[in-house]
């Protein structure tokens, strides 16, 4: 009987190998240039104006109008499950990203603060574009922020001592 159970278990393991599980993330690959180009579309998508910020509303493309919905849209992470794309906490997990050193940042990487503490850095994510100073003390980034909507501006998030922002690389970004 043990032999039959072992054979059945081995057969099932072989037969099910490669079958996506509920935890598997099915996302399209996107190049760094495509990600940045998609991010820039929200700067004028609202009849020539920025997409307004909202944690409850969804833009016409189906993505949430908050920072993580914006990153999900730019990176083509999918919007059906979870609806509007993964939130900031989920983006920070190894399902979607991997840590990277600040010195190794590339266009399309992220600075993310998934910590749930009130304050100026209350859960946020931005898309790194490029360094603007040789000493890497400032960078140009895309973000979706409250009171403004989609923005493209100079930032220092993640560069300050003891910052909760961490540099990460999206797993579906290539090139």
Layout of helices and strands, plus pairs?
Elements: H1 2-16, E1 30-31, H2 32-41, H3 67-74, H4 88-91, E2 97-99, E3 110-113, E4 124-131, E5 139-145, E6 149-155, E7 166-170, E8 173-174
Parallel strand pairs: 1-8
Antiparallel strand pairs: 2-7, 3-4, 3-7, 4-5, 5-6
Helix pairs in contact: 2-3
Write up this protein.
The protein has 175 residues and is an alpha+beta fold. 21% of the residues lie in helices and 22% in strands. The protein contains 4 helices and 8 strands; from the N terminus they run H-E-H-H-H-E-E-E-E-E-E-E. It has a 6-stranded antiparallel β-sheet with strand order 2-7-3-4-5-6. It has a two-stranded parallel ribbon with strand order 1-8. Strand 4 and strand 5 (139-145) form a beta hairpin. Helix 2 (32-41) crosses helix 3 (67-74). The radius of gyration is 19 Å and the shape is globular. The chain starts with a helix and ends with a strand. Mean pLDDT is 86; it is low at 1-25.
